[in-house]
Specification:
The protein has 9 helices and 22 strands. It is of the alpha+beta class. A hairpin with a 2-residue loop joins strand 2 and strand 3. It is an enzyme of class 5 (isomerase).
Length: 405
């Protein structure tokens, strides 16, 4: 299947009992190889039919083109309406990352949506090799992170750029770690988030990069953060302070502007909503939703290729922000803040930004990532504190799994 030149069969079967089907697929293929959940909807992949690897600055565009070729060779036998085949993807944040950017086509995908379920089955095409092992780089300690933020603020005040998002990593030991258990905890606690696991990266992202369904594209921008409080009065005050914060509103406006500049040239009927405070269990975020019409033949990965990296996870201007990240962050982000999601045979799909995420580095070890947007008004200690809030979903999931054993 190297050249995607051979026709192959894909079957779509109606399912009456999703739980029983999942048990059968687990018996046949082992633990899930890919997971995507949002609310009561879920896509769960088992086994590997193809693992396609991409690298470099055109990695997402190359993946979109490779996917079109693969879909063109699929001969679909369907008992129910549905697009097939289905692939899950996880892409590196940076052009020069050592991490694999992948499209993973499972042998079977259990699709649960709107109270109905079906399974998409694909034969082995090109299983590929194992994923690249993460480097054993040292973590970015808090003191060094604060120094990097201070250096970034100096550059911004000097006029080199307007915003840069600086991330740090945190190595977490979790004896007996089970990915499925961690995902269950994330899904229960962060129901409004997009729960994902693809090729060793997993998390609970609150931010969609691009969703395409039937010619309609949607996106959600998050930038600007405040802590939650168990005290209702303090929590309301935190929310109102976020909505009224000039620093956070400026940071958010830069992210929305980058979305407008990108989508405005390739979509029609683009509508941008008003910023609002999105409440998650651990933080408040400033959020803005956008919708647009896309032309026939434009798929979800095409939009992802244009949108990534957004100002929400890189900064502005893009080139200057990426240069600052490369200089100030002493580690490879790998798939953190990169696109993660799924795509089907029509080109429809859902893609989020891999936030509140971690990479599995071994049987008992994960490396979590979190970042904060730095602007001229930023305080280094406050930005460090913000990254701590954003580590909480992964830390909570690992702690809950350890307690349940």
């Amino acid at each position: 299947m190297e050249g995607d030149a051979t026709a192959f069969p894909v079957a779509i079967r109606r399912i009456v009992d999703p739980a029983a089907e999942a048990d059968g697929l687990r018996s046949a293929h082992g633990a899930p190889t890919a997971v995507w959940r949002h609310g009561d909807d879920a896509l769960t992949g088992f086994g590997t039919a193809a693992r396609l690897v991409f690298r470099g600055p055109d990695r997402v565009r190359d993946a979109a083109e490779r996917w079109r070729r693969l879909v063109a060779d699929a001969v679909v036998d369907s008992q129910v309406p549905g697009a097939a085949p289905i692939a899950f993807g996880a892409f590196a944040f940076a052009d020069g990352s050592a991490a694999d950017s992948v499209l993973l086509v499972p042998r079977a995908v259990l699709v649960e949506r709107g109270g109905r379920a079906h399974v998409v089955e694909t034969p082995v095409l090109h299983p590929g090799g194992p994923r690249t092992e993460p480097p054993a780089a040292a973590a970015f300690p808090p003191e060094a992170y604060e120094r990097a933020v201070a250096a970034a603020v100096e550059r911004i005040r000097a006029g080199d750029l307007e915003k840069v998002v600086l991330a740090r990593d945190l190595v977490l030991e979790s004896p007996g770690f089970r990915l499925e258990d961690a995902l269950d905890v994330l899904a229960q606690r962060y129901r409004g988030a997009w729960i994902f696991a693809v090729d060793g990266v997993f998390g609970a992202s609150p931010e969609t990069l691009a969703t395409v369904r039937g010619g309609l594209a949607t996106s959600r921008v998050l930038a600007g953060t405040a802590a939650r409080s168990d005290d209702p009065t303090a929590d309301d005050a935190s929310r109102e302070a976020l909505l009224g914060s000039p620093k956070n509103r400026f940071e958010h406006a830069l992210a929305v502007d980058s979305l407008l500049l990108t989508l405005g040239g390739i979509t029609t009927d683009l509508t941008i909503g008003r910023p609002f405070a999105l409440g998650l269990p651990n933080v408040w975020h400033l959020a803005t939703d956008a919708t647009a019409e896309v032309a026939e033949g434009v798929g979800a990965l095409d939009l992802v290729a244009l949108l990534h990296p957004t100002a929400a996870v890189a900064g502005a201007p893009r080139a200057a922000a990426l240069a600052a990240i490369a200089e100030l962050e002493p580690f490879d982000r790998r798939r953190y803040a990169g696109p993660v999601g799924w795509i089907d045979g029509r080109g429809d799909g859902e893609w989020a930004i891999a936030l509140r995420s971690a990479e599995v580095e071994g049987p008992d070890r994960v490396r979590a990532f979190a970042g904060a947007g730095v602007v001229a008004a930023s305080d280094a200690h406050q930005e460090l504190e913000e990254t701590g809030w954003k580590f909480q979903p992964i830390q909570e999931a690992l702690a809950a799994v350890a307690t349940s054993r």
